Amino acid sequence: MIRSLVIAALVALPAAALAADPARDAILADFAAQAKKADPAFAGFSAQRGETLFRTKWAKGDERTPSCTACHTENPKNAGQNAKTGRAIDPVAVSANPKRFTDMDQVEKQFVRDCKSVLGRECTAQEKGDYVTFMAGQ
Amino acid sequence: MRAALLTLALIGASMPAFAGNDWVPPVKDPLVLKECGSCHMAFQPAFLPARSWNRMMDELPNHFGEDASLPPEKAKAIRDYLTANAGDVVTAGRARKYMQWVAPGGTPQRITENPDFERKHRRISERTWKDPKVVTRSNCPACHRAADQGYFEDD
What we know:
The structure holds two protein chains of two kinds.
Chain A: H1 2-18, H2 22-38, H3 47-55, H4 69-72, E1 80-81, E2 88-89, H5 104-119, H6 125-136
Antiparallel strand pairs in A: 1-2
Helix pairs in contact in A: 2-6, 3-6
Chain B: H1 2-14, H2 30-36, H3 50-58, H4 72-84, H5 87-90, H6 95-100, H7 115-120, H8 126-129
């Protein structure tokens, strides 16, 4: 019993750590190409910048959503709640919700809405890639 | 006996037997459920007349302060569904009562401002409305657990 649990944990571990998904990789590659175009010095995405983006109190958009955490909570592995409508939101961390960031149309639509709501402007390709990179590691 | 049961079952499938007065036809279209239901419950089109839904779809870039823009082909399909199932078209269940309060030619946008909504919620305390699980009056499923199925009985 214990032995099979250990084996299961060992099998599950690398998959969870990498959280790789071809669709998500393609989305990140698309953001990377856009970021490189906007800034030739672009040198890859940063999970740390993504986390800062997630936690910063921007307070530049809707007063009900000063930061991403207003809806997604301080822990992206938790389910959230839409601060405007009360609707439940599935976790945004990929480990808790593997479907996240696998549909480009969905991803772009959500960034348009949420960046306006939180930052009061559209996000750059680098910001989007940083955010997805952070969430893919969560 | 068996035939009677079957008949009951058939009636039940087409029009919920215990639907009563607090029922509206639920949204069945997967695209409408997905796109209109991602930020809030996909409200049943029977709560507003077709002209309200047309205005709603015209004003998506400023949807209650939110940019809810959609690609044209999706927006068209959603508009078609909402207007075909609007309260002044289907006149089913609670829709009849709601439509009585809509001014001729009026294009109300907030279901929660219909006098029938207000009357049915008049005993709800401020404390309940301010509950963190509720957030806003349009959050039907916070109290009506089967709201997405079209049932709005007192829960």
